[in-house]
Design goal:
Layout (H helix, E strand, L loop, with lengths): L10 H10 L6 E4 L6 H8 L3 E4 L4 H12 L22 H10 L6 H6 L16 H20 L4 H17 L47 H8 L2 E6 L8 H4 L1 H8 L29 H11 L2 E9 L6 H11 E14 L16 E11 L1
Parallel strand pairs: 1-2, 1-3, 3-4
Antiparallel strand pairs: 4-6, 5-6
Helix pairs in contact: 3-7, 3-10, 6-7, 11-12
Bound molecules: S-adenosylmethionine.
S-adenosylmethionine binds next to helix 2.
């Protein structure tokens, strides 16, 4: 999924940074996990990884990509009739979901142009067919979960699969802050559920990785001492729930139906808004996370156009750890863009310098 701040392309740089620092496995924490791309890479490199994020959509990705060590068996009564428990593979379950008779529901009503039963909200995020397909799949996942036919991890893997599938047919330019006013070619393709492969732990030490939904401090308090803390917080004023409200809706479900706001149908998001996206609060947010953390080594990814000036990052990190160990690693890369330059933008062109700040714990 295209995600603001997704570090997939920076993974080689991050792994190389760890190598330069001589860090080679142990327990790691990634409390701003987003798509879980870094958590997954760390787990593949032999770390036991505890991920977390405020967003429920991220939680589904964390379970799918980091917590699960293998594809679950779906051995409940998903395909068989009630009472005949038989084993069903993930891909067979996906085929069942794709083949269900479509029933338009909440997504079709609010996020497709014609709505349901004459209720037109005019939002053009999905075609009527894909809106109904998304409703049908999400409702069935909820029903299986409520009846106990699937467990938490099986449920979250299916939700992540659906979010990814819906993202491929969303009529947006990458984020959900607006929809395009004519159908784009990807949006007219039918919804297809493609399997997500969990990360097999390469060593026993990587077994026991976990997912968490909530603020960074809560996760850090829950897991205690770690060898490596990797911080990848938001770096500008764009609050994630406003840019990804549809993945979040698919993750949270709609029981009870949320009250929607505005032209894009935003869902209630007070508890998802982050101090890292507020100029006056982001320094305190950094200091608070560092205060709670008990980590042997801290790495912070932060963009050079971010709200926090480098001097503030430096002083917070030096004060929280061994001041002489402080280092900055830098690499240029091409930005992910969903919009174009204009007079109000603070930059032009595609080049960004991504920095990784390091300090050893006290
Ligand atoms: C830059 S993105 C992380 C991207 C991620 N590394 C990836 O590769 O996809 C920042 C993430 O921090 C989350 N977030 C913001 N404030 C948070 C907080 N206080 N605690 C936990 N997560 C938070 C956002 O929901 C968002 O997913």
């Amino acid at each position: 999924m295209r995600y603001i701040g997704n570090k997939t392309k920076l993974v080689p740089f991050l792994l190389q940074t760890l190598e330069e620092l001589g860090l080679q496995g142990g327990v790691a924490c990634d409390p701003f996990a987003g798509t879980a791309s870094v958590g997954r890479a760390l787990k593949s490199a032999g770390w036991r990884v505890h991920c977390g994020d405020l967003m429920a959509a991220s939680y589904a990705y964390q379970v799918a990509r980091v917590e699960l060590d293998r594809t679950p068996g779906y051995s409940g009564t998903v395909l068989g009739s009630a009472g005949s428990r038989r084993s069903n593979s993930y891909s067979a379950v996906l085929r069942v979901l794709e083949g269900l008779p479509r029933e338009p529901g909440f997504v079709a009503e609010h996020y497709t142009p014609h709505g349901v039963d004459g209720q037109k909200h005019g939002r053009m995020y999905f075609t009527a067919e894909n809106g109904a397909a998304i409703d049908t799949v999400r409702e069935r996942i909820s029903a299986w979960s409520l009846s106990g036919a699937i467990d938490r991890r099986e449920e979250q893997l299916l939700i992540a699969t659906l979010i990814q599938a819906a993202d491929r047919v969303a009529n947006t330019t990458g984020v959900y802050a607006s929809f395009v006013k004519s159908w784009q070619p990807n949006a007219t393709r039918p919804l297809r559920l493609r399997p997500i492969r969990p990360t097999v732990p390469p060593t026993l030490s990587a077994v026991g990785s976990s997912a968490y939904r909530g603020g960074a401090e809560g996760l850090l308090r829950a897991i205690g001492t770690v060898d490596l803390l990797y911080l990848d917080p938001p770096y500008n004023e764009r609050q994630y729930p406003g840019y990804y409200h549809l993945p979040e809706l698919l993750a949270q479900g709609w029981r009870p139906p949320p009250e929607l706001r505005g032209k894009t149908g935003l869902i209630p998001d007070d508890d998802l808004r982050s101090d890292w996206c507020r100029r006056g609060r982001c320094e305190e947010a950094l200091r608070s996370v560092l205060d709670v953390a008990d980590a042997g080594h801290v790495l912070l990814s932060y963009n050079d156009e971010g709200l926090l000036p480098e001097e503030k990052i430096e002083s917070a990190l030096r004060e929280s750890g061994d001041p002489d160990s402080y280092r900055v690693f830098t690499r240029g890369y091409r930005r992910y863009r969903s919009d174009s330059d204009g007079p109000n933008r603070r930059y032009s062109g595609n080049a960004v310098r991504e920095r990784v700040y390091y300090v050893r714990g006290k």
